[in-house]
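Entry 14. Structure prediction run on the chain below.
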Amino acid sequence: AELREASDHRSFMAVIEGAFRLSGASLLRFLLDQMDLRGRLLSLKHFFFVDKADLLGQFLDVAGPELEKSPEKISLSRVQALLGLAVRTSSIADDPYREDISCTLQKYMTVEACQRLVIAERAPSASSLDLA
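Output returned:
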């Protein structure tokens, strides 16, 4: 109803800005309240950063031999099982979002991805970057 009443440009923009603020506030409330954004961010901090970062070290210790293989020889199910083992034996074993941790495999090595980034950066059209 307000949109139909906005006859001039200024009124029209005010209605759009009001709708934008309302939708942004609704989305933020949804993320904070229903999706527990703070809790998930705290879990990320525990998983990879400061206070409980032993997960990554334990995972690399147990999965190292598997991850050193060429990409086509790595078993995703084995890597996922080793990740689960690392989660269960790390300091984040009681984290409410521990089940959300997963892994995927790419068809290229990290060194190859870095090389492709450097090549793409030097190319005249770096916007068409393809790492696949």
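The chain has six helices and no strands.
Filed with the rest of this week's runs.
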